[in-house]
Amino acid sequence: MMRPAIEGGVPTRPKPWPTYDKGDVILDKEDEKLVVEALKSKLLFRYDYRPLEQTHVGKFEKSAEKFFNVKYALAVSSGTAAITLALISLDLKQDDEVALPGFTFAATPSAVILAGAKPVLVEVDENLNFDIRDLEKKYNPKMKAVIPVHMRGSASDMEAIAEFAYQRGLSVIEDVVQAMGLKYKGRYLGTYGHFGAFSMQSDKGCNTGEGGLLVTNDDRLFAKSAILSGAYEGRWKSHFDSRHPDLDDRDYPVYSFRMDNLRGALAYSQLKKLPARLKKLSSNYSYLIKQLSKNPKISIRKSLEQESIIGDSLLFSLPEFTLDEALYFSNALRAEGISCLVFGDTNRKNIRRFWDWNFLFPELDVSERKKLLPNTVKYLENVMDIPLSPTLAKTDLDDIVLATEKVLRYMDARRGMVVKL
Ligand SMILES: Cc1ncc(COP(=O)(O)O)c(C=O)c1O
C-alpha cells in the first residue's frame, strides 16, 4: 500500500492545485483588446456623453439583458453592492426581517445589515440547499424579503421558494453570485425572484477582478437601484428606452456602487465566454463524480436536477467518518497536492459557515450559535470542499481520484480493516 504524503510518502502531485488566486483563470486576447480599447478611449466613467449602449458598461448591460432574457441589467461594483441595492430599493425598515441561509458567504448577511434590516437565518437541507420547511417555521409578518443563495453553484428549489414568497408578499432576491449562467427547470437562476444578484470577482462566472450585476424585470425597482448606485442628476433615465418611472433622483442617497468602463469592457468579453466555461466545468464535473461515485465511502452532494449544478467545486462527505477523521482526510489530501477544506475545521476560519459570523451574534459563543441552526451544522460540518477551476485538465481530475483512493485505503488500514493492495 502507498504511504500518503501526510505520513512521509510521495505526494500524488508535486504541482500546486490550480486556483484563481494563483492566476488560473480564463482571460484571453479578446479581453485584452477590449480593455485596451476602453483605456484608449479615455472615457472610464460609465456615464459619459455617448448613448448608454455605446459605452462599454452599457454594452455589457445590454448583452446581459439578452443573455438572461430580462428587462434590465445594472452593472455595479460588486456582488455585495448588487444585493444591497436590491434590498435598499425595497424601502425596508429597521425591524424588517430578511431571511437567508446559514450556509453562504458572509457578504449575504452583510448586505442585509448595510440595508439597515435584520438578517434571519434559515437552515439548509441535507444537500446544503435553502430549506423551505425552515423558512415556513421562521416566517412572521416582520419578514419582508428572502435571499435564497445558490451556494457552491447548486440550485435551490426556486419554484417552491418563489411560490412561498408570492403567497406572503415577500420580495425575493436571488444570490446567484456562485451560480452565474446556471439554469433550474430550464430557466436562468436570478430570474425567478424580483432581483438576481451576481458577482464578477475573479473566482466567479465572469472575471473582472471585482464587479457585480443586478437583474430585474421591475421598472420601478430597477430605476431606484440605478439611482442608488450613483446614476445621479437624471443619468438613470439613460437606462430606459422611452418611458421611465416617475422618480426624482434627489429623493435618494447616492452610494456610488457604479461599474467603470474598463471593467465593463472586460465583463462584456467575459460574458461571451460564459457558455464555453460552463460547458467545460460541467464535463469536468461529470467525469469526476463518475469516478468518485465508484467508491461507496464517498457521498457526493446531490443537486435537484442533474444539470442544476455548476461544477466549479466538489462537495462531498465521508459518512462513516467522525469529524476528526474528516479533518485528517482533508489534511492528507492537501499533503497530496489537492486543495481541500472541511467546513467544520475548527482550526481554520471559514466565513461561509454561520457560526463564524461574529459580527452577527457578538453576544453568543460558538456553541450557542450552533444551536440556532442544528441541521445546518449537522449537514455542513463534515463536508469537504475542493475548488474546481475551469482550467483543470483530465490529469488534475485523475489526481483527485488517485489521492482520494490512496488516503482512504490508508485510513482503512489504520482502522485495522482488510484492504486490497
Ligand atoms: C454567495 C456569495 N454572496 C455574495 C458574495 C459577495 O460578492 P462580492 O465579493 O462580489 O461582493 C460572495 C462572494 O464570494 C458570495 O460567495
List keywords for this structure.
single chain, 421 residues, alpha/beta, Aspartate Aminotransferase, domain 1, Aspartate Aminotransferase, domain 2, 2 domains, 7-stranded mixed β-sheet, 4-stranded antiparallel β-sheet, 12 helices, 13 strands, 36% helix, 12% strand, binds pyridoxal-5'-phosphate
Q: How many distinct helices?
A: 12
Query: What's the architecture of the largest domain, going by CATH?
Result: 3-Layer(aba) Sandwich
Main β-sheet, spatial strand arrangement = 1-9-8-5-4-2-3
- CATH superfamily of the largest domain, please? Type I PLP-dependent aspartate aminotransferase-like (Major domain)
* Oligomerization status of the protein chains: single chain
Number of self-contained structural domains: 2
Mind sketching the topology for me?
Elements: H1 29-41, H2 56-68, E1 72-76, H3 79-89, E2 97-101, H4 107-114, E3 118-122, H5 132-138, E4 143-146, H6 158-168, E5 171-175, E6 183-184, E7 187-188, E8 195-199, E9 212-216, H7 219-229, H8 261-292, E10 299-300, E11 313-317, H9 323-335, E12 341-342, H10 366-370, H11 374-380, E13 384-387, H12 394-414
Parallel strand pairs: 2-3, 2-4, 4-5, 5-8
Antiparallel strand pairs: 1-9, 6-7, 8-9, 10-11, 11-13, 12-13
Helix pairs in contact: 1-8, 2-8, 3-4, 3-7, 8-12
